[in-house]
Write a structure and sequence with these properties.
By secondary structure, the protein is of the alpha+beta class. The protein has a single domain (about 5-135), classed as Sufe protein. Chain: A, CATH 3.90.1010.10. About 45% of the residues lie in helices and about 20% in strands. It contains 4 helices and 4 strands. The chain has helices at about 5-15, 65-75, 80-100, 120-135; strands at about 30-35, 40-50, 50-60, 145. A hairpin with a 2-residue loop joins strand 2 (about 40-50) and strand 3. It is globular. The structure holds zinc ion. Zinc ion binds near residues 35, 38 and 62.
């Protein structure tokens, strides 16, 4: 199996069977995000304590890329500090816009490298991350990629 096929498989798997899917009842940060270009809609729930993301879930619907991205993001940032999550977002954003794999490992998030070839999909891949950022910042406005 080529690396490209492996990446594709990770995205299809998480798109079909998203992890951390559902509502988080003790969340202290909640935020909605919308990508009108594709129709992706999600809500991010975060339980944050002393700057650590203790738990994170999401609900919503959208294309496989947006759902897989939210699922893999939740896996990647759970247990991390807010600052570490921001660093991951910066690396991930660079990956999906430039297609260059970062010099530090970002684990399964690397599966999104191919998105850089499809600029219209960048918004699908980054919606959950923008929404997480707004949730942690307690931004009162809903996130929209437009
Ligand atoms: Zn989408």
């Amino acid at each position: 199996m080529s690396l490209r096929e492996l990446y594709q498989e990770i995205i299809v798997d998480h798109g079909k069977n998203p992890r951390h899917f559902g509502k988080l009842n003790d969340a202290n940060h909640t935020h909605a995000g919308h990508n009108p270009l594709c129709g992706d809609k999600l809500i991010i729930y975060v339980t944050e304590k002393n700057n650590v993301i203790e738990d994170i879930t999401f609900e919503g619907s959208g294309c496989a890329i947006s759902v897989a991205s939210a699922s893999l993001m939740a896996e990647a940032v759970k247990g991390r500090t807010v600052a570490e999550a921001q660093t991951l977002f910066d690396l991930f954003h660079h990956l999906v816009t430039e297609g260059k794999e970062p010099t530090v490992s970002i684990g399964k998030l690397t599966a999104f490298a191919g998105v850089a070839e499809f600029p219209v999909r960048v918004k699908c891949a980054t919606l959950s991350w923008h929404t997480l950022k707004a949730a942690l910042a307690n931004n009162p406005n809903p996130v929209t990629t437009e």
